Amino acid sequence: MSLTNVTMTQDTQIGGPSGKFPATHWSAARVARSDDPADRNRALEAIIAAYWKPIYKYLRIRWGKSNEDAKDLTQAFFTRLIEKEYLSDFDPSKARLRTFLRVCVDHFVANEAKAASRLKRGGSAQHVSLDFDAAETELTRAKPPLQLSSSPERIDEFLEKE
């Protein structure tokens, strides 16, 4: 199932009765863990249809995300929920579905922020240019030539000349 099968309308203004977290959809939560892909997809569609707008609004209010960032995060969250099968961890004896989803969203947003703030390899490192070709040329010009069997004294003598 992909999010393209679920309609997320442009009605994303904060407020209104359709923006509140709905009562827990126990049957949908139970069927979302089904072994039958068709049943699972129908249940996931029902959960997404019921919860996408409250999660979008939660991201806008609780996390202070812009309209566009909240849209992106909402879609990314539900994509991850499907791919990683988050609902398989849902235990109705421990929490309501809305609480479970809010906790998942909080972890998701925190992880996304952490990932965005990571520096790419060498991102803040000062780069130094090293001319290895020149060093190799100097090694080949050494008289007498240096070898692996050269004594430590001979190596020190060569390096001190440089």
Account of the protein in words:
The protein has 162 residues and is mainly α. It folds into 2 domains: 3-117, RNA polymerase sigma factor, region 2, helix turn helix motif (Rna Polymerase Sigma Factor, Chain: A); 132-161, no CATH class. It is 56% helix and 0% strand. It has 6 helices and no strands. Helix 2 (37-62) crosses helix 4. The chain is elongated, with a radius of gyration of 29 Å. Mean pLDDT is 80; it is low at 2-17.
Key phrases:
162 residues, mainly alpha, Rna Polymerase Sigma Factor, Chain: A, 56% helix, 0% strand, elongated, disordered N terminus
What's this model, at a glance?
By secondary structure, the chain is an all-alpha fold. The chain has two domains: 115 residues, Orthogonal Bundle (Rna Polymerase Sigma Factor, Chain: A); 30 residues, no CATH class. The chain has six helices and no strands.
- Overall CATH architecture of the largest domain: Orthogonal Bundle
Low-confidence stretches: 2-17
Return the structural class. mainly alpha
CATH topology description of the largest domain: Rna Polymerase Sigma Factor, Chain: A
Please identify the top-level CATH class of the largest domain: Mainly Alpha
> Total domains, how many?
2
Summed over residues and divided by their number, the pLDDT gives a mean of 80
